[in-house]
Design a protein that fits this description.
Blueprint lengths: L2 H28 L6 H15 L5 E6 L5 E6 L5 E6 L4 E5 L5 E5 L6 E6 L5 E6 L4 E5 L5 E5 L9 E4 L5 E5 L3 E6 L5 E6 L5 E6 L5 E6 L3 E6 L5 E6 L5 E6 L5 E6 L3 E6 L5 E6 L5 E6 L5 E6 L3 E6 L5 E6 L5 E6 L6 E5 L3 E5 L1
Antiparallel strand pairs: 1-28, 2-3, 3-4, 4-5, 6-7, 7-8, 8-9, 10-11, 11-12, 12-13, 14-15, 15-16, 16-17, 18-19, 19-20, 20-21, 22-23, 23-24, 24-25, 26-27, 27-28
Pfam family, one: WD40
Main location: nucleus
Keywords: Repeat, WD repeat
């Protein structure tokens, strides 16, 4: 029997078994006869299956010549943009896995790339100390942003309205005007490399992660650091807002994922399971599920409320360096030092 089918059958049997235990408990409480329990178990198990997405590998894309550092879906979910140590930014069809186009211009490793909120542009950051803005339709470079002899550009993110870009380099966070390409503001406070930056859903705050083991929360208008979240025991590589902006999920070199309350700055939960560095974390659109990737070559899916691991995906042969979830939550895309992009659904 095919291994994948065998696993799925076993999984369905486990779900039915758990459903039977739960239902029998209910019925004992209600003093109802159990004569019809077996048929009812199957009905409930099928009902439960509708709400538990079981991800499997759909596509493997092999095209980049070096480690792939990031992958992101387009706002409509139809495309994926990737960045790599081969100095290119490439775009793919998320359904077929086929190559669509690429952007050349960076003169060093490209660390991050993502689509603008309207999907018409792509930004990328690089070891060459620049951020570049690309037109998706024409493939033309629209802007090149840099600040003198500033350090490598590690992380980038568009504001929700697409008018501003936030970037992270060494100890600094910078805000850039998309239309002019000019630097608007520099936020200082971290004592080591800033590895991740993201706007909140309302665009009013920014969350940052850094190798100084902290997570920062910043007010966009004032540029002030509102909160400093401490709890990780090693460098923090990623931090992301929940869709409603009330929580932050972070991943670290300490192999843990942590959930934080945005209002209080308090740590709410610690998720353990990865063996080494957690390189990426993303929320699903419903805000109840989190996906993470690690240098242990696994992708793990978690219940954000209970902290329990729901599913583990294995397929990469190298460290997994980036992860994203499609806007409708039906697909996951991952990238790795094994030079592949993998699409799960």
């Amino acid at each position: 029997m095919d291994t994948g089918k065998e696993k799925e059958i076993i999984r369905q049997q486990l779900i039915e078994k758990k459903a039977k235990v739960i239902i029998e408990h209910w019925l004992r409480i209600l003093d109802i006869k159990l004569g019809w329990i077996n048929d009812f178990n199957k009905i409930v198990a099928k009902y439960v299956m509708c709400f538990i997405k079981y991800f499997r590998l759909l596509k493997v894309i092999r095209s980049h010549n070096e480690t792939i550092n990031s992958v992101r879906f387009s706002p409509d979910g139809d495309k994926i943009v990737s960045s790599s140590n081969d100095e290119t930014v490439r775009v793919w069809n998320s359904s077929s896995g086929e190559y669509v186009q690429h952007f050349n211009g960076h003169h060093g490793w490209t660390y991050a790339a993502e689509f603008s909120p309207d999907g018409y542009a792509v930004i990328s950051s690089s070891y060459d100390k620049t951020i570049r803005l690309w037109d998706v339709r024409s493939r033309v470079q629209l802007k090149k942003m840099s600040q003198g002899n500033s350090n490598w550009m590690w992380a980038i993110n568009f504001s929700p309205d697409g008018k501003t870009i936030v970037s992270g380099s060494m100890e600094n966070i910078r805000l850039w005007n998309v239309l002019s390409g000019e630097l608007i503001q520099t936020l200082s406070g971290h004592s080591h490399t800033v590895t991740s930056v993201q706007y909140s859903p309302d665009g009013q705050t920014i969350v940052s992660a850094a190798c100084d083991k902290t997570i920062g929360l910043w007010d966009v208008k004032s540029g002030e650091r509102i909160k400093t979240m401490k709890g990780h025991f090693d460098a923090v590589f990623c931090a992301t807002f929940s869709p409603d902006g009330q929580f932050i999920a972070s991943g670290s070199d300490d192999a843990t994922i942590r959930i934080w309350d945005v209002k209080t700055g308090n740590q709410l939960k610690v998720m353990e399971g990865h063996l080494v560095r957690v390189k990426g974390v993303r929320y699903f659109p419903d805000g109840h599920i989190i996906v993470s990737c690690s240098s242990d070559k696994t992708i793990r899916i978690w219940d954000a409320r209970s902290g329990n691991e729901i599913q583990r995906l294995e397929g990469h042969s190298g460290s997994i360096t980036g992860i994203d979830v499609s806007p409708d939550g039906s697909k996951i895309v991952s990238c790795s030092s094994d030079k592949t992009i993998q699409i799960w659904g």
